[in-house]
């Protein structure tokens, strides 16, 4: 068996060897001790495990190729806290959970020098993530208080007992009692910027836990440059400590769908021939009341009649939505289909005439990018990370202005050429985002946290440099 490893040769400091080298200008394998970089330090390697092509014959040449044979090397073990990975009909299965699923599917090949233990109690996790080790708990971690208790007690004890090299907390907070080198993923800082949109305990735990975890972590990961800027400003962090791993786009959204399949989907879901789609959890920063007011201003300004479809699970503090529906007399014009399974999302995007996402704040804005990948014209906000996500492939609006939202809808719904132009731009934009790249950035962050070198290219040999 051959293992490709980063090697270097270190001169053995013996006077006799130095004299022999000075006399003959030739080295033998006994003059140099091969070493290998493992877990952040150099380890000696027995000469018997190294193929004959060593440093001995080429003391003055640039890097040489070597092969280590019959050598078992223990991989660094990483614990990944993914208890927010939920595949149910609720807000917890929305953006963060989907990011986790796609990342963890692509991470094993990107970080193949690590042994990955994923702590996730989602029943479908073993099926969704066949290439990692899944570890579960009997505690009801789908409930926030139980998850916090597990995170700060049971999980913290696991980290001590199993002697992990690295912890990746995939959502904001790491255990208080933790001696393992840690990476923390921050999706957004909405609980700092919009504290009024969170229940008191949830807001306090996130603010305290995120600040403490971020400052103690070896490295952090954000999902956009916008979120990175927020983390630097609000948490007083060094920019060099933060890696940006933007989401990818599932290939599911780029697959063609026949008009017959879309028509059948409309009949199945009892959808109108023409509708505008919003997709997301119903919670305050999604700005749904402003969208409803904008849709009320749209009436009578388009060639055909449209419905507004507000798809997605119910989150929290959405009591204003029914009040606005009644005040604008839009109750009969707005549909609530509820939670949308991931595999059905492309059909919703393809069936819609336009996708509107007027969120006040996003860590990235995955639904807008998925709509672009589906060829659907997009209207979204000109704030936070959303311009970063869509580039020039969407119409940008002030989310606080129902008039701007309504005007953008009129432009898209009445202008066929504009729709075709935005479709072409959107498809091109979406091709730039892949989950494989997300995983590669994450794996690079792991190596940086442990002080490990980047892997050599996948050759049959490893690069070897002579060290003075």
Structural class: alpha/beta
Structure annotation, total helices: 16
What is the radius of gyration computed over CA atoms, rounded to a whole number of angstroms?
A: 27 Å
> Shape, please?
globular
Identify the CATH homologous superfamily of the largest domain. Glycogen Phosphorylase B
CATH fold-level label of the largest domain = Rossmann fold
Strand segment tally: 20
**Low-confidence parts:** 1-71, 458-468
What proportion strand?
15-25%
Distance between the termini: 31 Å
- The average pLDDT is 84
Largest sheet: 7 strands, parallel
Strand order of the largest sheet: 9-8-7-10-11-12-13
Count of domains? 3
Structure characterization notes:
This protein is of the alpha/beta class. It folds into three domains: 72 residues, no CATH class; 188 residues, Rossmann fold (3-Layer(aba) Sandwich), CATH 3.40.50; 180 residues, Glycogen Phosphorylase B (Rossmann fold), CATH 3.40.50. Helices cover 38% and strands 18% of the residues. It has 16 helices and 20 strands. The strands form four sheets. The chain has a seven-stranded parallel beta sheet, sandwiched between helices. Strands 16-15-14-17-18-19 form a six-stranded parallel beta sheet, sandwiched between helices. Strands 4-3-2-20-5 form a five-stranded mixed beta sheet, with no helix packed on it. A hairpin with a 2-residue loop joins strand 3 and strand 4. The N terminus and C terminus are likely disordered.
List keywords for this structure.
Rossmann fold, 18% strand, 16 helices, six-stranded parallel β-sheet, globular, alpha/beta, 20 strands, seven-stranded parallel β-sheet, disordered N terminus, 38% helix
């Amino acid at each position: 068996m051959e293992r490709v490893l980063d090697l270097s040769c270190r001169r053995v400091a013996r006077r006799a060897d130095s004299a022999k080298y000075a006399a003959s200008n030739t080295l033998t394998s006994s003059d140099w001790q091969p070493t290998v970089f493992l877990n952040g330090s150099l380890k000696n390697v027995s000469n018997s495990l190294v193929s004959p092509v060593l440093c001995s014959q080429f003391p003055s040449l640039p890097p040489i190729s070597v092969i280590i044979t019959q050598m078992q090397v223990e991989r660094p073990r990483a614990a990944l806290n993914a208890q927010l990975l939920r595949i149910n009909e609720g807000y917890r299965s929305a953006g963060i959970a989907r990011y986790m699923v796609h990342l963890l599917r692509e991470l094993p090949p990107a970080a193949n020098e690590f042994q990955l233990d994923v702590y996730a109690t989602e029943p479908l996790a073993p099926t969704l993530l066949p290439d990692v080790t899944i570890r579960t708990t009997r505690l009801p971690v789908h409930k926030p208080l139980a998850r916090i208790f597990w995170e700060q007690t049971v999980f913290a004890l696991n980290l001590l007992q199993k002697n992990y090299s690295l912890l990746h907390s995939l959502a904001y907070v790491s255990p208080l009692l933790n001696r393992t080198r840690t990476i923390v993923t921050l999706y957004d800082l909405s609980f700092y910027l919009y504290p009024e949109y969170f229940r008191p305990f949830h807001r306090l735990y996130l603010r305290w836990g995120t600040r403490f975890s971020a400052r103690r972590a070896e490295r952090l990961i954000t999902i956009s440059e916008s979120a990175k800027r927020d983390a630097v400003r609000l948490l007083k962090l060094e920019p060099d400590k933060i890696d940006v791993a933007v989401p990818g786009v599932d290939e599911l959204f780029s697959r063609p769908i026949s008009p017959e399949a879309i028509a059948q989907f409309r009949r199945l879901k009892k959808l109108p021939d023409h509708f505008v789609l919003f997709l997301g959890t119903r919670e305050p920063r999604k700005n749904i009341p402003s969208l409803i007011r904008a849709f009320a201003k749209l009436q009578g300004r388009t060639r055909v009649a449209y419905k507004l479809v507000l798809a997605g699970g119910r989150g929290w503090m959405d009591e204003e939505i029914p009040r606005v529906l009644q005040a604008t007399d839009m109750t009969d014009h707005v549909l609530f289909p509820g939670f949308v399974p991931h595999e059905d999302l492309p059909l919703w995007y393809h069936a819609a005439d336009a996708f509107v996402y007027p969120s006040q704040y996003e860590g990235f804005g995955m639904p807008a990018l998925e709509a672009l990948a589906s060829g659907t014209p997009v209207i979204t906000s000109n704030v936070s990370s959303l311009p970063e996500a869509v580039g020039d492939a969407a119409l940008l609006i002030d989310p606080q202005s129902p008039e701007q939202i309504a005007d953008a809808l009129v432009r898209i719904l009445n202008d066929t050429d504009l729709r075709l132009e935005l479709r072409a731009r959107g498809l091109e934009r979406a091709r730039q985002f892949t989950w494989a790249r997300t995983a590669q950035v994450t794996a690079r962050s792991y190596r940086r946290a442990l002080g490990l070198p980047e892997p050599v290219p996948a050759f049959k040999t490893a690069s070897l440099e002579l060290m003075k």
